[in-house]
Amino acid sequence: MSESILDVFQGREYPYTYSAEHEPIAKIDPGQTVRIHCVDCFENLLVEEDQKFSDVCEYPYLNPQAGPIFVNGAEDGDTLLVHIEDIEITRDWAVTGLVPKFGLLTPTAVTEMLTDAIPDIVRKLPIRDNQVWFGDLSTELAPFMGTIGTAPKLEAINALTPAHYGGNMDCPETCAGNTVHLPVLNEGALFFCGDGHATQGHGEIGGVACEVPVNLVCHFELIKGEAIGWPRITNKDYMMVVGSARPLEDATRIACTGLVDWVASEYDMNSTDALLWITQILELRVGNVCDPNYSVVAAVERRLLEAR
To answer: How many angstroms separate the CA atoms of 252 and 260, rounded?
Structure first.
């Protein structure tokens, strides 16, 4: 890993899709530490509580991405490791609120209902003393990247949608100290990131987290010739697989299937034994239940996979 940090700025319009058609903003060698400057999911346009989301946002123009970044040497069929070193929040407040027709508990653009949509509300939440404040209530900062992934093949998919390439998974596990494993589907991998969150509850049920602009400090590593089907997340304690789909049942199946297969391979078990044991030790976490696809994280502790 390089000791110097290369700052990467967008320098042009932010893309709102994951696509191989976007021109790279930078070319990076594996091992080079980069600081990628990201705006928030509203392109930093919401700055006052008397604004409305509808004043500045037009669906699906949400989640502007930094990228793509071309990783030298990456080829279709490789795996890209994104070692997250730090996520630097770059202002002293977060924006949250409610977006009409977006979220779990409202009619949406995907699922209309006879009831009215939730109101259009913007709230600014101060950040101080390592806490996010909601009036006199607070919770600790736990920054992560809501959106992180690589370009899919042939398609241009809006940046609100998580899928096999990563994207808008909204998983708090994409945080500093963890490594995100992403499939490489195009030359150069074509890495995107954005949608920084100061903190978020599991599921993001209201549709909007504590949204902040951030700098993602990370470095890349390539595993040559080893393809993965879905994103993985690792640290010294856990192995995790993220599945994204609708309904939530299918996202869960994707994540659990990927984890069973991975554990069986990593720990020299047959798939039956892996399934039997993972059934006893599995942790299921919901990333989001508000996006075009829902995301589920299937996780196991490594210590429970080590022979004693």
So the answer is: 12
